């Protein structure tokens, strides 16, 4: 009886799966996922749970440990299998203690400032020195050796608001390069205008050592209104800044959290959905990257509810993205022998959305590329014709050959709150994140059910 | 020769003044002031100067002293006469030292909080206690004696966004009443949701003792996103809050700053333009009330540039409005014998504008009421038919009989930044403040040139 029943269920499952592959219109699939995503709003609920129960979770903090436990618990609750944590060793995890800045003039005006990640502390009594402003990083680079001796360099580049993050890309260089360039010219500290598009008194932090050496002089970001204030003060004459930045660093162990929606057993191929679990310390990491966790986990869950797919869906909550893509690098190394089975990967790390463009890797079979474009068009997603985007956490596996499906999230407002105290749940758009969840579910489902083998070299 | 020249000048002045009264169309006057206000943008430039050179200026702080010196200097620079400081003694000026709050759960999450003015400090080790939430002040009031023993009360009232500040009026009661009501029921501290319409992590401070006793338990405001977070945590079960609030109080001497554009000598009557010079400590007091200083000073300056008026225009930069209308109360007392000469008063303390409604006091001659409505209509200002608004700093002289010209500033966005760190120059709308300056200039000019006597009892 039991055997017969199981066989019947298997037959039903297989035939419904086979039917799905043969008959389902990608646009209908997308609409179905949109309905599922809107009902209950699981993506938003996941962000609510993470940000309320855990809050900030920089690598090495108690919040980071709590987030890993949360991630395992949440995936198990939602019915994921093979839920596990995978170790990520980090030689140096930086933690903020306190930041303080004052504009020293007739009075001492408090300026809102945040040390950049990996900034050394100032001496115990702080640093008070004259400020020299540079409107561009090139202007700092062009300044003479010794010209900043004993001074504080101020790199004052504005960030353009764009949908796809190009404005951020243009400005973010000062975050890593201001300190070393200033140091070479004799400066004892550096400050930058926040890499952010808002006009609120929230400094935008971010690592100063991403793809670069550790900074050897203290470096911090001023909020945009405070950078305006310092600029105005400098228009009136020389100005001094007082900086008191305290931080600490220690080796730390973090964890990628992994869970799966298993395939129907007919393929050992894996479709990966990734987002990062760590956040900066200032906010609760709602848009960066709670939203990505919500989108990817809810998308995988929706696929599970729809029925078995040929391939396994694997969700990875990456550790330590903010401090140099630590978890994704460890994942690529730990799974290097298995990467050939990773036939498609998607990442969500640009806020709550909506998704406005899909760009499949050019290596995918033409039929899959077509179904991705057709399916996502039903969610008002247009078709990109360039190179598929690779988010930061997909970099290591993509360089090892794993192709991506680029799903572009609308980032017009993303850099208003990115890396600030203001990155909180109220900034997540419940309607947009439901569409994003549906778009990721659709793309992952189409890849996971595609009838041809997707393994590299299989054609 | 000298006598003849003087006589000629006097005659010319008198006749031009008389002509102005007889012939000038109020709408043409308003348009002229709009042109003057737009050219050069003096109102905005005054706010820029105050917020950049001085910054925050809570009563009793070095910034407050610097602001008084700034005010005297600025009025003299602009050609005002009888520029002076008038002493205001304050028995207790509260100064913030530091604020810290944490939501105590699986982790300790930092919440953004600001002590309310006159809040006592917490004990040296802070306070950590269970939180009890009240959705309304009435709910707190209805709670049983002793029901909050050893706990922290949380009054969680939202502020409605309105143009005229009624939403603020509905919510602000919790700022003064939360602490005494909670104390009566045994609470050891109280927190409130910020009285503010934004969704950013800026707590809105404000005095807790306005028209009430000094609070005797620590009381602070959470930013709106942090109040959301605490509410969400409480939905999941009991939650504790850690509060560490430090402040100090000391007697202080502050100063009203006064300057005049003298009349033509034909009247001893005074038209008063007022705004307050002090600010809260968190921002740079750009909208509250740098904007009012900019509007009133620039309006008086525009009148001076236009030519002599019959009456004197007096600008008063009031001290200590934020901590209980200290300067305005002192002004009414010091000038009580002269108040009969104060024939009309206007106040700007609601941001940069624009002005959308004029409501002259019902006691003004009908012809003046008509010219005010006609003139301001040219600036798209409609005519109010209720009681003339009396701003906080006009209260004391209004109660002593001085009639006001109510000029309503559009406050739709005002409570987004009011009493927060985010009250900075970038929040001042340069176009709106120019219109406001023109509206105040028009109203003051019409009152200052009105041919009939405006003295009370003169009709």
From TrEMBL, chains A, B:
GO molecular function, one term: metallodipeptidase activity
Protein keywords: Carboxypeptidase, Endoplasmic reticulum, Glycoprotein, Golgi apparatus, Hydrolase, Lysosome, Metal-binding, Metalloprotease, Protease, Secreted, Signal, Zinc, Zymogen
Subcellular location: Endoplasmic reticulum; Golgi apparatus; Lysosome; Secreted
Any GO BP annotation: proteolysis
Signal peptide: 1-22
Residues of the Peptidase M28 domain: 256-440
Entry-linked Pfam families: Peptidase_M28
GO CC term (a single one): lysosome
Transmembrane annotation, as ranges: none
Assembly description: Homodimer. The monomeric form is inactive while the homodimer is active.
Protein name stated in the entry: Carboxypeptidase Q
Phylogenetic classification of the source organism: Bacteria, Pseudomonadati, Pseudomonadota, Alphaproteobacteria, Rhodospirillales
């Amino acid at each position: 009886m039991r055997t017969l029943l199981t066989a019947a269920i298997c037959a039903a499952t297989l035939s419904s799966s086979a039917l799905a592959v043969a008959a389902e219109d990608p646009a209908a699939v997308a609409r179905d996922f949109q309905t599922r995503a809107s009902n209950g709003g699981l993506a938003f609920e996941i962000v609510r749970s993470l940000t309320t129960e855990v809050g900030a979770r920089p690598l090495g903090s108690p919040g980071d440990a709590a987030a890993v436990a949360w991630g395992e618990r949440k995936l198990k609750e939602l019915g994921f299998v093979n839920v596990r944590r995978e170790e990520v060793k980090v030689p140096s995890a930086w933690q903020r203690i306190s930041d303080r800045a004052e504009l020293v003039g007739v009075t001492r005006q408090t300026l809102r400032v945040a040390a950049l990640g990996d900034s050394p502390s100032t001496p115990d009594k702080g640093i008070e020195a004259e400020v020299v402003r540079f409107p561009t990083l090139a202007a700092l680079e062009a300044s003479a050796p010794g010209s900043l001796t004993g001074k504080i360099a101020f790199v004052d580049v504005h960030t353009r608001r764009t949908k796809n993050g190009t404005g951020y890309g243009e400005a973010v260089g000062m975050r890593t390069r201001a300190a070393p360039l200033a140091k070479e010219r004799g400066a004892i500290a550096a400050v930058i205008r926040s890499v952010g598009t808002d006009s609120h008194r929230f400094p935008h932090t971010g690592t100063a050592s991403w793809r670069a050496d550790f900074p050897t002089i203290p470096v911090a970001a001023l909020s945009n209104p405070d950078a305006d204030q310092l600029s105005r003060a400098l228009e009136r004459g020389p100005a001094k800044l007082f900086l008191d930045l305290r931080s600490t660093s220690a080796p730390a162990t973090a964890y990628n959290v992994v869970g799966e929606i298993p395939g129907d057993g007919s393929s050992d191929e894996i479709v990966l959905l990734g987002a990062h679990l760590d956040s900066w310390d200032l906010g609760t990491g709602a848009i960066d990257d709670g939203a990505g966790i919500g989108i990817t986990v809810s998308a995988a869950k929706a696929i599970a509810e729809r029925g078995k797919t040929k391939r396994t869906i694997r969700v990875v909550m990456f550790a330590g993205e903010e401090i140099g893509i630590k978890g994704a690098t460890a994942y690529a190394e730990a799974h290097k022998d298995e990467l050939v089975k990773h036939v498609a990967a998607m990442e969500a790390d640009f806020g709550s959305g909506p998704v406005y463009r899909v760009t499949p890797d050019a290596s995918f079979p033409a039929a899959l590329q077509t179904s991705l474009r057709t399916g996502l068009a039903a969610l008002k997603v247009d078709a990109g014709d360039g190179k598929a985007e690779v988010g930061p956490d997909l970099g290591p596996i993509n360089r090892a050959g794993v192709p991506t499906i680029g799903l572009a999230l609308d980032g017009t407002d993303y850099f208003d709150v990115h890396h600030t105290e203001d990155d909180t749940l109220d900034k997540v758009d419940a309607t947009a994140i439901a569409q994003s969840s549906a778009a990721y579910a659709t793309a992952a489902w189409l890849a996971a059910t595609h009838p041809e083998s997707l393994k590299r070299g299989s054609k």
